[in-house]
Amino acid sequence: MSQSAVLDAGLRPGTEPQDPARRPLPRFFGKGVLAVVLGLYTIYTLGPFLWLATMSVRTTAEISAAPYAWPTVFRWEQYRTAWESGFAVYFWNSAIVVVGAVVVVTLIGAAAAHALARYRFRGNRLIYSILFSSIIFPPQITLISLYQILVDYNLYNSLFGLALVYISLQLPLTVYLLEGFFARIPQDLFDAAKMDGYGDLEIFWRIVLPVGMPAIATTLILNFIQLWNEFLFAVVLITDPDKRTLPIGIRAFMGDHFQDIGMIATGVMVSVIPVIIAYVFFSEKLIRGMTAGAIK
To answer: Which segments constitute the ABC transmembrane type-1 domain (predicted)?
Structure first.
């Protein structure tokens, strides 16, 4: 083929005509497929929650007559009824245990992660390996041992004992996640801080914590959600009805109102609202922290 013929065909010299069947798909087609997939996934994830939210403000009779209908009358008094039926006690028990455990886990985990990431001492890698191995095994295998320890130290059936168990369960993963993030903080920041006269504690509070806040917020939210919904350890280690946390309280509430679907949905919504609030306030830091931890 001559050069003039190639130019006449609208091709550059040295190229062959492109097969129409092998041409790339239009860009808008790929975006359209992505939009459809994301839309379906959104419906899949938010659909059950929205259905639960609508049932929480409807009576059982209304739900039985039209399970998927939008509420014609929003019966907010059901939330007050559920709150006065024992959910207030369950809520505050969960808040005390979970918030206290998460705060302690975050502070100790951040300090331990900083020490493992920044300082080299004998046994450094051994401690890291022990933490990693404790993450691999399921926490259920420690249930009997933790039960016996709490009984021996008179901490069984107490909120303080349950909080200590939650701290021991979440601390290894918290240290493991934060150590990977803190290890990427430039050494120049620490050198400059030492030249300015900062001690180790000041470096931790003024440099490590502010710089590592996205990762810290990520572990904080993950720990909060995990512990707020934790059931197994709470149901085994707590027997007093006045010390029940929300997951145990919901089970008891469902037994007392097993025929009242509307009240059960209301009770479940009461337990879900704190998780939603936590995500709304920390969602930006959560996304930043997960993005920063995606590449190690």
So the answer is: 91-282
Number of domains in the chain: 2
> Whole-angstrom Cα distance, residue 55 to residue 241?
27
C-alpha 118/C-alpha 179 separation (Å) is 9
Does 99 lie in the same domain as 35?
no
Give the model's pLDDT for residue 13: 52
Rg (CA), the chain: 27
Decide if pLDDT at 11 tops 50.
no
> Exposed e or buried b for every residue in 74-98, given b needs 16+ CB within 10 A?
eeeebbebbbebbbebbbebbeebb
H/E stretch holding 34: helix 27-55
The percent of residues above 70 in pLDDT, for the chain, comes to 85
Contact 162/238 with Cβ under 8 angstroms? Answer: yes
168, 155 Cβ separation under 8 angstroms: no
Asked which of 60-74, 122-136, 137-151, 282-296 is least confident by mean pLDDT, the reply is 282-296
User: For residue 289, what are the CA distances in angstroms to 33, 132, 223, 286?
Assistant: 28, 20, 14, 5
**43 and 104 assigned to the same domain:** no
Look at residue 28 and tell me whether its pLDDT is greater than 60: no
Q: Which domain holds residue 187?
A: 77-292
